[in-house]
Request: fold
Amino acid sequence: MLLESVAYARPDTVAEALQLLAENEDAAPLAGGQSLINVLKHRVASLELLVDISRLEELRGIAAAPDGGLEIGACVTYDELDHSPEVRSAQPMLADVAGHIEDQQIRDAGTIGGNCCLSDPTNNLPPLLVALGATMVIASSGGPREVAASDFFHGYFATAVGEGELLTSVRVPPLAAGASAGYSTVAVGADSKAIARAAALVRANGTIEEARVVLACVSPIPARHAGMEEALRGRAAEPAAVAAAAERIGADLEPLGDAHGSAEYRRAMARVVARRAVCQAIGNGGPQHG
Amino acid sequence: MVEAGNVQAIEFTVNGERREATVASRQLLVHFLRDSLGMKGTHIGCDTGSCGACSVIVDGRLVKSCMMLAPQADGCEIETIEGIAKDGELTAVQRAFHEEHGLQCGYCTPGLVMAATFLLRRNPQPSEDEIRRAVRGNICRCTGYVNIIRSIERAARNGAEEAA
Reply:
């Protein structure tokens, strides 16, 4: 397929990339390209300039602090997350989820930054990063700023990254003592497009002390479910209590129905994936990929 | 910095040969390989990144060449189906696809051979589950995949024998 005419530039630094993005109104950063190239093929969007950031060394690193905190460059690929000893050790669920995104070819190109900046509600990483309490670092001409992952996603294909800005890294804090993550998806097929998804972070010591439950695919952005979180707090860390808490998910959700699942089906599956994700986090569920 | 332009001069290595070219910034790598370099072994199936027929290896990564622009290949080492057999001798993967009947119409085969080659370089003795996951991005409409999985299992055995 032939793309519409578009210019290509490959800056050597983030500063040069920001300048190119600021100077050209219809410029966009090109990272892994696994969504953007198709957008251009289908002529859904028309751009003057692609700023290739995929090789910027500043965006390609994974730094691990002694306390287990991670700073992951925006252009680190899913495959690199999957195979990083630092990520495997500090945040095994993040490595696992990244290793089950679509297929090898996509994992070799797609990036953590692209997955977040696209803000497609079916994308894998946003709900997990919200559950893990990640911070998104954004560069702009005025200097860097930090936005909590829970405030980063603004809607369908909209994020806190403004015109002329660039997501440069994702900071993931260390897991607290006794905390563990869970993740569950109902998808069209293995490792494919999600119909309902939940990510959880649970701190428990026989009893659930704190739980974050983030639902995705049932609203434009990944969102914590306060009702289920409240129902989990102080309860025994066992499947029956989790199932009871998941019943709090219900009429408050207004998902959209589509060819893959009606609104009612998505709502029902949100309860299922939320229960599975929390059970996995407390060590009472099998691996849940996708 | 590579300055903004609708046309870019690129340098790359394809199957071990150093090349230079001038490409349109909007040209997909798969079109560059097929139409500019005349290397028609890399196939275009869906042209939307779904089928994997255009899979090639770029700087050690398995990529769908319809999801990458030609100017992005600047400075890269590209491996295509044309380059994997050395001196006319089929590789362990190619022989196994022949022996296990891992193809029917053959359209998806170049992409599958590249995906299998990538897998076995990284993981010479994969489990069946690992093989299935490794070809998740490559669609075959003929075989039902069973013979493809067998081919890659056999390629792993062939490779182990060759290495022994």
